[in-house]
Amino acid sequence: MLGNRSQRRKMIRLIEADSDRAVPPRSALPLRSAVPLRSAVGSASPGMLVLGLMALGLSALGCDPGGVGDPCIPEDEYRQQVPGYAVTEVNVESRSFQCETRVCLVNHFQGRVSCPYGQTEEVADACVADGSCNPDNGRGCRVPGTNGDEEVDRIAVAVAPQLEKRRADDAVYCSCRCDGPDEKASYCECPSGFACVELIEDIGIGPSQLSGSYCIKEGTRYNTSERGGDVCVAESKNCGSEGKNP
Asked: Whole-model pTM?
């Protein structure tokens, strides 16, 4: 994650993808329909175009809720040295091009979306060294959309397995901000099957436009008792895909 190890262990991390961050190839991304820029800025002059794009980026957190619940893979997972997420954290990627809403929410999730069974440090070292891990044998973790043939596509650190009762389907998906501290901000209405729940308290740290409530799937509100629990184990195949990491 961003920052040092102590920062990664904070209860809440706010991740806002910057324009200069490495973006994976378009072929590797499960892209969703993007907000059409032409309809947003029309035939405006260059100056108005810049202002329109800025407004579009800032208003995305409260845009039309179409696409809420669609799957997304956080951009951090396209980095070789990223171990994944901790169940104690909430992460908001506010400029996700995989989401119509531009918000990819990681709501108290453990591990990597793209590597349900995780990998130990020993497996990671072996996979990077000899390329013996691939989707066919299901060993190791890879950059999403790759088969690990290239060394740069092999995740080089230990990755925790996902929690059996809090898989990516219930904790990582496109969302939108439905309430917040700014009375003048634009907020979305959660679609059927979703609840508006406060996830990020405004404590004066990080971008204030990320603070507030987000649409989450009903019945998935995080409970501290979920910090532990059974994890995905390849030998038992308890998280599908025949016990293999894709």
From this structure: 0.73
